[in-house]
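Here comes a specimen:
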Amino acid sequence: MERKSSIHIEKANIGEFYHNSREKKTENSIFSTKDNYCNIKANKAMELYFSELKKRTELYRKRTGKKLHKKTITLFSAIINLNEKHTKENLEKIVRFIEKRYNTKVIQFAIHKDEGHYDENGNPVINYHAHILFMGIDNDGVSVRRKMDRKDLITLQDEIAKLLNMPRGINYTKEKKKRPKRLDTYEYKRAMKLKNDEVLKIKKELENEKNLRKQTEEENKKLKKDLLLKDAQIRKLELTKQGLEKRIQKLRNQMKDYNKLQEENRQYKIFTKEDYQTLSQIKKLLKVSSLKDINHMLNEFENSIKEKIRKRQLELIEKYSEEKGVLNKEKVVKTSTAKKIIKYTTSSKKDYGKEFIKAVFRIKQLEKELKQEKEKNQILKTKIKGLEDENTKLKVERDYEEMEMKESSKNTEKFEKNEINKTLKQQPKKHITSNKNIRDL
């Protein structure tokens, strides 16, 4: 977004000499200070300020016959928006312009390119700006504050934009818009620091979530790899003569277990003598047939066993359904009796090793955790977006808001004209004691 010009004038204090020269540490400086510029060190600036203040105070006394009021603003600070192309030569033009416009003297001016923040992608966003500190009493001993009326401050914004060759900030008076509430320099910086700290905190949480997700994905891949390896080992073992013999024995034991369960529950046996004979014949063929053919036969036989078990379960459920007068089989399956039927027709022995089963459940668990982490990441991104939007809004209010001053009534204007006439006649006049910060329009 293109930066717009803006100048904000407010009462200054001598501590700002050190802030501008960066001779004391400031929390606002987060980038490199090598491109900063300051025309004079803080100590020399203070010596010059007090020297000028003494001269101008005496001029004021001679002109008015009174002592300088303690609430008179003697030092002003102007904060000006810049862009990355502006140099000290550009700032010197504004310095000469302010000195001429207000018939005063600039004590110190500086360019800062080390303040700003980081966006949501971690990229630096630099707040290019300048500070100008100038005397609040002009060369003739007159308060500069008296010259800064509404009209003056509006035209000041226009002139600064032209000198810097930048688009002017919003003219709320011309566009008849309501001015948003403005934060002063230090309030704004504190607010920006809080926002930046919150964004950095959420970014850190997001980074931790990403690392956790990456770790989860790696663990998931490792488990899947182990699972495939174990499965391959099982298949390889089954294709050996010894492996096929163990498989035949395992099937025989399973068939016996199923029949035993049926006897215990007073049901007829699922597997008959013919089924056992078929399995024995497959075992005898191990001596004359290829291992591949035997493996195929066992697969077919195993499928037939599973089909018999399934049919038995359906028969028992239908029988139970008829006894209870229930036609909906799906409803019957959900009943505790139907669940017992399925349990009694299923062997308690497992087809795979415990480690294999644990790996399967672990993968499912990791997939669930991964989904949860993705949802958390999305929530964090939404929070960061909201904070960045608020951050941008604060910055716009800080950079482009103009100072708000109350319009003087007609009676006050007449009074000021009379005061000016008295000043021209070198008569003492009433001094304006307001110490309210001047806000740019």
Q: What stands out?
A: The domain at 7-182+401-424 is CATH 3.30.930.30 (BirA Bifunctional Protein; domain 2).
